[in-house]
Amino acid sequence: MTEAHLPRVVLVTGTDTDVGKTVVTAALVATARAGGLSVTAYKPTQTGVAPGEPGDMAEVQRLTGVAAVEGVRLRAPMAPRPAAALEGADLPTLGDHVARVADLGVGHDLVVVEGAGGLLVELTDAGETLADLATVLPDSGVLVVARSALGTLNHTMLTREALFHRGVRPLGIVIGAWPEHPDVIETTNRDYLGALPEGLVGAVPLGAPRHDAATFAADAPDWLPGLAQRLGTP
Ligand SMILES: Nc1ncnc2c1ncn2[C@@H]1O[C@H](COP(=O)(O)OP(=O)(O)OP(=O)(O)O)[C@@H](O)[C@H]1O
Ligand SMILES: [Mg+2]
Fold first, then answer.
1. Which protein residues touch ligand 1 with a CB less than 6 Å away?
2. Ligand nearest 48 Cα, by number?
3. 30 lies in a domain?
4. Per 3-state DSSP, what percentage of the chain is helix, strand, and coil (rounded to 5)?
5. How many domains does one find in the chain?
6. Does residue 1 lie in a domain region?
7. Which atom of ligand 1 is nearest to the CA of 178?
8. Within a domain: 163
9. What is the pLDDT of residues 134-188, one digit of tens each?
């Protein structure tokens, strides 16, 4: 059962790294913008990029034209805690991220927060995760990005069980890359995910990141029909 309106903070997690969280983040930003909302995106911990290199928020900006911000950046392409340890860096606290999201929320109707890897990856030196951030951010919920292929049902069910266990508000599932010619595994996966209570709220077509910003922005609301209809003006 889907709820009428999206919260003012949407956290985008995934069943794994590389499942399409950044592209879904961009699609949600574009969809919100098309609905007349002011929106930005925030990546609390960006790993695997050197100073000056484009990270996930640069990709969101490239695909949407909307400025997006990072919390902390670490060079090593690994989870934030070991990446920070390699540099001898301190990670921002959960309170730092809450304050940053609150600041962004002052100037925007919607803040989209992209996690690092999957839901239980530790983002802080105290070991807190995106799920912990969701539990302390007021008026927030979590969107789960999943793969289309074999294995996605177990990963998706594990992720949603962790969400429910923590009392986090589920906003639905999005398939990160949906092929033009899905096989029977993919179509049955889609049907199974679509029958879950929070529902399959969209699927981004395979190849979408190759679009230019204008095409991406124009098409994105069609990829997320279950969210577009819930993005009413505040
Ligand atoms: N719909 C799609 N069609 C084609 N390629 C895609 C699609 N979605 C994502 N990709 C590609 O797959 C790779 C991983 O996607 P993306 O960066 O969005 O994953 P992620 O979940 O954000 O990863 P991370 O955990 O590093 O943040 C990227 O190279 C991206 O361009
Ligand atoms: Mg990403």
1. 14, 17-23, 56, 117, 176-177, 204-209
2. 1
3. yes
4. 40, 20, 40
5. 1
6. no
7. 1
8. yes
9. 999 999 999 999 999 999 999 999 999 999 999 999 999 999 999 999 999 999 9
